[in-house]
Amino acid sequence: MDGFMMLSSSDKLQERNLALRLSKLLSNFIPGYNPYDYEGRVIVEVAAEDAKSYFKALKYERGLRVWSGDAIAEWLELWVYKWRERVKLVFDKRFTAIFDKQRELVRETEGLWRALPYREELKELVILALIEVGEFCFTDLVAENIIRSELHAYKKRFKSEEAVLLHLSISPLKFAKNLMRRAKDLKHWRGPLVMFKVDSKILQGATGRIVNRIREANHYALFEF
Question: What is the DSSP-derived secondary structure letter of residue 31?
């Protein structure tokens, strides 16, 4: 997580209303959907974050009119389709190499990620590019991974983090264009993008946000694209 921000009582109410609305709608779109089991909780958490990113990117007015209107239902139908296409839950150790590679990417780019100017603005641009090519699921995570992958490519090219940051200060537009290209190239990708590793420690947590625990435990990975 990039930081912690206190939510106002109004924000908390909106988040609660959004989660309730999504849970009701998901029952219509996913046969046997259970908002209280592991996958059900993950789905509604991710859907809520993606909904906020989507409507923010498209400059929708926040609030109950969006969450209770037809727009959220229409968006969620598309989102469920992308969830089935793009997300893979893993319950065994067959994909250890993929998770190891993801952890290495995060480790290798952490310094640059924290020092990157206009990081949140870049992420918003990438999320918008993802939406434009029909990617609605895990947009925040995928956008971060795209930025980290490009930072890693720059680091390999320029050899040091200092040299990368200097180049970014001289040619920021080229970096942004590279990110847009990576995002838009996903329209040619078929199959899963995001993988979650499930283990007993994650499942035992009865409270709190499952997705946050998965990220903190580095139990996620993205396929190379």
Answer: T
Alpha helices in 30-90 (DSSP H): 38-57, 64-68, 70-86
Rounded Cα–Cα distance for residues 215 and 197 (Å) = 10
What confidence tier does 195 reach under pLDDT thresholds 50, 70, 90?
Answer: confident
Q: Which two tokens stand for residue 132?
A: 């434009």
216 pLDDT more than 70: no
Q: Categorize the per-residue pLDDT at 64 as very low, low, confident or very high, splitting at 50, 70 and 90.
A: very low
pLDDT band at 172 (very low <50, low <70, confident <90, very high): very high
Burial class (CB in 10 A: 0-12, 13-18, 19+), 200: exposed
Q: What is the mean pLDDT of residues 60-74?
A: 64
DSSP class of residue 6? P
Please report which residue ranges of 38-191 form alpha helices under DSSP H: 38-57, 64-68, 70-86, 96-115, 119-132, 139-158, 161-170, 172-184
Contacts with 79 (C-beta within 8 Å, 6 or more apart), sequence order: 47, 50, 51, 136, 137
Strand order in the sheet with 194-197: 87-90, 194-197, 220-222
Q: Which residues fall within 8 angstroms of residue 69, CB to CB, at 6 or more apart?
A: none
CA 147, CA 162: separation in Å to the nearest integer?
A: 17
Q: Domain-by-domain residue ranges, the chain?
A: 9-90, 96-222
Tokens encoding 10: 């109004």
